[in-house]
Amino acid sequence: MRTGIFVVGIWIVLLNASFVFAKQELMLSKEQLFDTGPAIDGDSRCDFAPLYYVDSGEDVADMRRDFPYYFCQGMYTLTLDGPPGTTVTLFGSFNYSQQRGYLVLRKKDDRKVWILELEEFPGDQWTTLEADSKSGAYEVYYHPAPNFRRRVSSVKWGQWWPGSVPVNAKVK
Known about the structure:
Elements: H1 2-20, E1 25-31, E2 51-55, E3 75-81, E4 87-91, E5 102-107, E6 113-115, E7 126-129, E8 138-143, H2 148-151, E9 154-157
């Protein structure tokens, strides 16, 4: 009996601690495209939506290195957790190159942001979206490129550009 109470007590403490110390986190999901054929070379691991997590502050210059599903066909969707002001950029090229487009996302409230279509935003301008029943409020700056939603290849946290608009800025 004492052991059971002790285990339940520890479980409650650990559960509460995980909420207190929750990190800002980006989750990318590579969704199957309904207009594509079978997975590459019959690779059955590509038959579902693989998830890729990026913890706050952990920039990823080359997703091919640690995302085994990188070469699967599909388009990315995302969720972003963290406090207001959390900023992350998805690049369509490796090593934070702006050549194949990029999307800057900045949270405006404490709710999780959920974006299903990465290319739905006006190009080369800040756009603010208010919270709704599915997502928290956020600002987005999208520098368009063909098939950006399929080519996300690197991730950078924080503001990497000087000034208010990330145009033609070198990535630090």
